[in-house]
Design goal:
single chain, mainly alpha, two-stranded parallel sheet, 4% strand
Length: 181
């Protein structure tokens, strides 16, 4: 799920990063278009801001997971109690317990779906916020180096090959960590 999250984020950021350039150095001389590449997944993984975003997201997910684990234990306890008491329960009482357990399982499943939506919403919120800051830093680095276009590189990106000299990822990370956003 983590890698899928980063891939989805990187793909979403691709179009914005490609348009973020407005300024200075890279690819070739003369009057041609000045292009660079940036690995935004690496930026997410290696900047303090990215680490904080991931920690926030992980903390949120762990809290939700803990709630679900407690509910699951309670359901297991209810099921075990019902199984232990099956021989002493009347058919009506057993049916009532089974119905109660079934309702609780359905509630548990609905709560799980709701929490999954909450986690997805939180992922979007956290990564969108990080993406906005990353776009500003990429634009700033692009302007400092006279770049006209910055394209996202990395797994899931549209760039299959680029010369190493075109990669501004380290500069973006450095600027990001200096507080350049």
């Amino acid at each position: 799920m983590r890698y899928a999250l980063y891939t989805v984020w990187a793909i979403a950021l691709l179009s914005a990063a490609a348009c973020a350039g407005a300024g200075a150095q890279s690819g070739g001389g003369g009057g041609g278009t000045r292009v660079a590449v940036v690995d935004l997944q690496k930026v997410l993984l290696e900047t303090e801001s990215g680490k904080k975003a991931r920690e926030s997201l992980n903390s949120f997910m762990k809290n939700r997971q803990a709630v679900m684990e407690l509910e699951e234990k309670e359901l297991k306890r209810m099921e075990d109690d019902m199984i232990k008491q099956t021989s002493v329960l009347t058919p009506n009482a057993r049916k009532e317990r089974e119905d109660q357990l079934r309702r609780r399982v359905m509630e548990f499943q609905q709560k799980g779906q709701e929490m999954n939506r909450e986690v997805q919403d939180k992922q979007k919120e956290v990564l969108d916020g990080f993406r906005e800051r990353a776009e500003k830093v990429v634009a700033k680095v692009a302007q400092q180096h006279g770049l006209q276009v910055v394209v996202e590189r990395g797994r899931g990106g549209s760039t299959v090959y680029n010369e190493a000299a075109l990669d501004i990822t380290a500069r973006v990370i450095e600027e990001f960590n200096k507080g350049g956003q």
